[in-house]
Prior knowledge:
Number of strands: 11
Oligomer: single chain
CATH topology of the largest domain: Rossmann fold
Shape: elongated
Mean pLDDT: 88
Number of domains: 2
Radius of gyration: 22 Å
Amino acid sequence: xxxxxxxxxxxxxxxxxxxxxEPARVLRLLGxxxxxSRTIGLADALTADVLxxxxxxxxxxxxxxxxxxxxxxxxxxxxxxxDDLLNVPEHFGSVFAGYQDHDRRHRIRLMINQADAVTTPSxxxxxxxxxxxxxxxxxxxxxxNYVPERFVVDxxxxxDTEPIIGWAGSxxxxxxxxxxxxxxxxVLRETQAGIHTIGADYTHRLxxxxxxxxxxxxxxxxxxxxxxxxxxxxxxxxxxxxxYMAELDFTIGLAPLVDDVFNRSKSDIKIKEYxxxxxxxxxxxxxxxxxxxxxxxxxxxxxxxxxxADIFGWTATITDLLEQPTFLRKMQTLALExxxxxxxxxxxxxxxxxxxx
Length: 357
């Protein structure tokens, strides 16, 4: 049995949940003494066999790491990073500004380079991180993100109402969401499907959808606008992944990504979350999603401008699923079957191997 300590960057965020709290839980199931906390002192660190620094970028964390590195008897030091923190896009606003700080960037590079091992959830991010490791350092270890078994539903939910098309994400996804505006306006105009967004609120981009087409003079116009707006629903961001998963009532789950350096390094956890709830995911053919099962990805049209290809791909894929209920049900079933094969408990050994080998 090994003593494993995760120095987590947060308490209720998804990053800490998937990369510290849940890994610690399944490592305990394997017989190890594994815990996750936001603080750890030198004395406690020295009692560990493995100490994982998650997304660490502050001076106290660097000082702790460097103090440990000077000891002859010390834990194995792992730096865990699940986003390309040195390539944060400018449209992330204050987050971008924070990671432009010269001292913070220097500390991240130092900790990546000095750690005995580095873990990431994707091979693209592993390649990006290796640029900051010395030529003799071990390559980063890829441990994908997985959903816990408790999130996986027993069966695809029965559809008692019109389908619900959903999207969930933070304020950092404003450019990603733009790919959905035209397709979702078409959905509101031409179908009775509902739209549910969770997290950042971009629904103002959808609520005027009915105004694109004026059906007839008089009250019919007002009724059409009101009816379309009523089918758009928003849930503010939910603290804690368990609470967030409970809000996922989508029939079809959308996961758009702009093709940029940062997004190429992301993980595929969004489609695993959707699939675990019996939701049929539709995702951009970008980064972590490009290698996902083909039935989940929008088409790539290389013969036309990229902006048109994105809009056409989303519109065509959403329309296909809405117009073919049997096919939609099949996609939901396949997604759920895939999710059952991709739970954290089934792959707990990857964390054990990464941290202890």
